[in-house]
Amino acid sequence: MTNRVNYIRSSIEEMEETIRTLQEECEHEFTITKPHGELRESLVEGIYLGSTDNPWSGPRGSLKFSINCLKCSLTKDCSVAYICPKCFTKLEVDKSPNLRKEYWGKSYIYYGSLIHSCPNRHFVIVNDEWDQ
User: Fold this and answer.
1) Which of 3, 6, 90, 101 is 20 to 30 A from 78 in CA distance terms?
2) Exposed, middle or buried: residue 126 (CB in 10 Å: 0-12, 13-18, 19+)?
3) Exposure of 82 in the CB half-sphere (CA atoms within 13 A)
4) By C-alpha distance, which of 27, 37, 129 is closest to 80?
5) Residue 103: which pLDDT band, with cuts at 50, 70 and 90?
6) What is the rounded (10 degree) CA torsion for 90, 94, 97, 98?
7) Residue 65 sits in which domain range?
8) Using H for helix, E for strand and C for coil, what is the string for 48-94?
9) pLDDT (average), residues 38-53
10) Is the pLDDT of residue 10 over 50?
11) How many CB atoms within 10 Å of residue 85?
12) Mean pLDDT score, 84-113
């Protein structure tokens, strides 16, 4: 019985290693499999709000989504604050804080808004940022 268990365990480890190698060498072709929440558009047309709620309502976080490679089945969780949900490239950040009221409709002391945009011009999001 012990030999059989060891054999099965060894086989599983070999398969896992094969899968890891295939995923590392894959030229990924990702698709969104699971959005975690709904993007809301800001007051500025074409720019989305990145936070799930306002700074005073407790824990905040950027909206997330899951992607899956169609070729190797690699799955990743991503944040719209860092990854474009349309082309999956890393977003670039405009380092100068903007007026929060312009995008959210109200301002909060100590918070500004930073623009995160896709270098391929597919997606623009604004996030609350500590402004002090």
Assistant:
1) 101
2) buried
3) 7
4) 37
5) confident
6) -100
7) 2-130
8) EECECCCCCCCCCCECEEEEEECCCCCEEEEECCCECCCCCCECEEC
9) 81
10) yes
11) 21
12) 80
pTM over 0.85? The answer is: no
Residue 86 in tokens? 């349309």
Which of these, 48, 51, 49, lies nearest to 61 by C-alpha position?
51
Longest CA–CA span in the chain (Å) reads 69
Copy the structure tokens of residue 70: 């169609």
Coil/strand/helix, residue 26: coil
**Number of domains the chain is built from:** 1
Helix, strand, coil percent values for the chain (each to nearest 5): 20, 35, 45
Q: In this structure, what is the dihedral angle of CA atoms 79, 123, 88, 115, given to the nearest 10 degrees?
A: -50
Most confident of 21-25, 35-39, 76-80: 21-25
